[in-house]
Amino acid sequence: MSTRLEKIEEKLRELEAAVPNVEGSAVISLDGLVMASRFRSDVSGERVAAMSSALLSIAERINEELGRGKFQRALVTGSDGFIVLNPAGSDALIACICSKEAKLGMVFYELDRLSKELAEIISGP
Hints:
45% of the residues lie in helices and 26% in strands. It has 125 residues and is α+β, with helices and mostly antiparallel strands. It has one domain (4-123): Beta-Lactamase (2-Layer Sandwich). The radius of gyration is 14 Å and the shape is globular.
């Protein structure tokens, strides 16, 4: 029987297999701690987690203040790629780093699917 951590890590591997040009991903607690991650050795999972948690907090606040409904995701774009943050239930979020070649629609689709699966794993027994 797999542990919760093993199940989360497997879901991150599935994301990378399903979406070309994903360069790394992590499941992060809302207080900014890494639950599981898959990044290159030169990327600090702890640093990504802390920044992602802060960004999620700000994005949720902006969304609420401007009356945009329930928060769904945050997207940060740069000249070489983008980062997407999706909630994973009420206790975690997914950060996904992609190259500029990644198909944004595919990333959104897979992250929405993954968010639901991770929420069940995280909140499960």
